[in-house]
Amino acid sequence: MSPNALIPSHRKPRRPSASSRALRAGVTGGFLTLAVTGATVPANAAEKPVAETQEMPTITTALATSAAKSADTAEQVAFNYERQALQDSAFSKAAKAAEKHKAEAVKKAKAEAKKKAEEARKAKEAAQARASRSSERSTLSAPSSSTATGSTATLVSFLKAQLGKAYVLGATGSSAYDCSGLTQAAFKQVGIDLPRVSQDQSTAGTQVGLDNLQVGDILYWGSAGSAYHVGVYVGDGNFIGAQNSSTGIVERPLNYDMPTGAVRVL
Question: Which residue blocks in the chain are alpha helix, DSSP H?
Answer without folding.
Answer: 18-25, 61-141, 151-161, 179-188, 198-201
